[in-house]
Every structure is written in C-alpha cells, then in structure tokens.
Amino acid sequence: MRTAIVVGAGIGGVTAAVALEQCGWQVTVLERAPELGEIGAGISVWPGAVAVLEELGIKGVEQVARPGESAGMRRWDGRWIVEAADLGVELPVMIHRAQLHSLITDRLGPAATIHTGTTVTGLTQDADGVTVQAGDQEYRADLVVAADGLRSVIRGLLHPEYDGPRYSGYTAYRGIAEAELTDGGGETWGRGQRFGFAQLIDGRYYWYATANRPADSPTGDPESDVRERFARWHEPIPALLAATSEVLQNDIYDLRTPLVPFVQGRVALLGDAAHAMTPNMGRGACSAIEDAGALARVLRDSRDLAAYDAERRPATTKLVKRSRAIGVMGQLDNPFLSTARDGLLGLGGKAAGLLARRRRVEQSRV
Predict the structure, then answer these.
(1) How far is residue 201 from each of residues 46, 60, 359, measured CA to CA in Å?
(2) CA pair distance 39, 20, nearest whole angstrom
(3) In the chain, what are the domains?
(4) β-strand 205-212 against 42-45: which pairing, if any?
(5) pTM greater than the 0.85 cutoff
(6) In what order do the strands lie in the sheet with 73-75?
(7) pLDDT tens-digit profile of 222-257?
(8) 39: burial class by Cβ within 10 Å (0-12, 13-18, 19+)?
(9) N or C: where does the chain have the smaller number of CB atoms within 10 Å of the terminal CB?
(10) How many angstroms separate the CA atoms of 353 and 339, rounded?
(11) What single-letter DSSP state applies at residue 77?
C-alpha cells in the first residue's frame, strides 16, 4: 500500500487525508496543535467545493449549512449601493468552520492516523520516498502533502528564496452573534472599513469586519475595538456586535505572486501553504478542498504530480489576484475615491440586474 504524510490538519489537510485514503493510500496526518479541531467562525462553501465533498462521501453539509442570501451592498449609513437579490448570481452555503471540519474528519477511516502536538522541522526526499523530521521523530512515506498554512514550514524548506506572506494593509474581526433579525445580511462598505454578516442554519449570525491598520500595530481588546469602530454604522451592525460574546481578530496576509510551484519531487503544496489569499471572495478553504479533490484525481488517474500543479496553480493564482484587488477597492479611505467607487458599483449592479432579468425572460420562453 502506498503511503502519504499530510502536514497540517486544517480543512484542507483533513480533506486531502480523506481523499488519499479513498484512493487506497495509508495516510499519516501530523498536526502541531495539541488537539484536533478548527477555530474561527463562519465559512462560505461554494458549489465547486460542495461537489468535491459529495464526491468524497462527506455527508451532512446541507443539514448544517444555510443557503446564502444575496442581500447586496450598503453604505455605512444603510443606504443601498447595490441591491443584489435579483442578480441571479451563484451563492455559497454558510456553515461554522468547526462543523465543516468535524464532518470531514468523521469520514476518515482505519487507514488514516492523526498525530497532534507534532511540529515538523525538516524534510528530505530521495528516489524512494520522503522523510519528515518532527523533533526526534522521523516519518517516512511515498508522498508528502504540505497543508501547513500561510507560514508553511514545508514551503519554506522547499523554496527558501520565496518572500512568502505579504500584509494586506488591514486587519479582520470575526464573531458569532446570538440575535434575532429580519435582515437577510450582506456587506456594508465604508471608508477603510467593511462589515458583512450572514445567518447560519441554527439561527445565529456569522459576521466579519475589516479595518485599515499598519502592520504589527499593538493589539488591544478586539471586542472593544470593533464595537467602537462600527458604533455609528447602520443597524443591525451595532446590535450584532452587542450580541457577540467573543471576537476573533487577525491581520490579513496573502502570498505573493507568482506563486511557487505546487509540486517538487514527491511533495505537493495544498491550501494556504500553496496559495493563501485574502478572504474577500470567501474562497480560501474552498480552494483547499478543491486542491484535495484534484490531487486525489491526479494520483488515481495518471500519478503525475505535475498535472496537479498544472491544474491548480493557474486557477488559484487568479483567485489570489482578484481577491487582493477586491480588498484594495473595499478598503479605500480617500473620500473622493470611495464615493466614486460606490457610484460605479451602483451602476454596475443595476446593469447586472437588467441582464439577469433578461436571461430569466429568455429562459422562460424556451
């Protein structure tokens, strides 16, 4: 039986472990955290990732996820920039990160072993296999999948010349609110700040916010900070923040382009280790899931890892660039530029709405 080591047990890592096991591989997962699990708040799962999960037999996403609602975009004072309810755009489902992670790990079988509290420090490979060093312990396998995140140790070992993560210029806040609302959610854009929210299947609301901030600025109390920043924004934003008991805060980074090759010898990069992107498109974890599906398909069909790189690197490079561009536009702080941005988005939304309505009319005539 062929053997694989997966470094990192986040959503991408455990999806890769499930996929490899189903291809007949013996899988060892090395996770540096002391316990298996996911921290965070809500996550959007787009149709492409849902299709991969379904193909892997990961059941229950629909039961614990809520279909996204295209509620559009507003200004900080509540005035609509784009009302997107009738645009007919593709939408994700919303789920808590921990729930999604649990659904995936529940699919792991007896050919997969997880070691927590294990920090990888070195890697060597030869014609016969790959050796991973973790302290005094060595692990040997035919393949290594590096799913160890934005600051990937494996990527650093393979590509020491690569500059790696770059700061986006803004920080993010996230939380889950216990609130009863009639608002369908959406995003609100201000000057150098944004706020978005969506309802989860259990009735709670996942929210996220961004704010421009210099890199490595001192961090205070995230809960007080985010409430102060958005205190005068339109409802239900203050109500959501008041109904939140814990606020997560982290500065936003992505990987510089061009991205490094996703494959070197018997080692494949996956997820944030390969293509960390800003969260502006909600595609980061979904891209990791799609990586896992593509990797398993390549290993099953051709066993040529170069095909995995050829498929996934161009696709994710586009997402990294687009997501960063959306962030630059969304975080504009100049009053003139942000006003012009809102006007152009409003015109674009109206045009897209007209096109969507025309398509529906044409389809109804078929």
Answers:
(1) 16, 12, 31
(2) 24
(3) 3-68+100-165+256-329 (3.50.50.60)
(4) unpaired
(5) yes
(6) 80-82, 73-75, 186-189, 193-199, 205-212, 165-177, 244-255
(7) 999 999 999 999 999 999 999 999 999 999 999 999
(8) exposed
(9) C
(10) 21
(11) T
